[in-house]
Request: fold
Amino acid sequence: MSSAPRPFGITALTLLQIVLGVLVLLGGVVLLSVGLVLPAMFPHVRFFGRSLVFGLALVLLALIDFVLAYGLWKGKRWAWIAALGFAIIGIVLAVLSLSTAPRIGEFVSLVLNLLILYFLIQPRVQAYFGRGPSAVDRPKTSP
Reply:
């Protein structure tokens, strides 16, 4: 764990990641349920097989969200890199979506990911993850 104090924004980002993970997990469970239960009720419909695949993918994404939340909370370097990467991917996808079909959801996603990116590159946040000059230049304190 990092020796720098945890910035409040990391707590908020961790909670956001947990909420996202719970929502994605619920969606995955629903799709898995659809893929497992409804084919028995409607054997002639073939679309339900895709529900299993998408449900498993969402469960996997939820697990990634929970692992990322743990890494953010503990100040792991890999979590900072992953969060930065996901924010950049989110920005690119939001810009592409806004250019094709502008909707409020894409705009909110763009603003949120820009805020996350800005927050993650702040020196105090980088120091918490053991990155940046303030992590190297900080004097060691003895207990």
In short: The helical segments are 8-41, 48-74, 77-100, 104-120, 123-128, 133-137. Residues 76-131 form one domain.
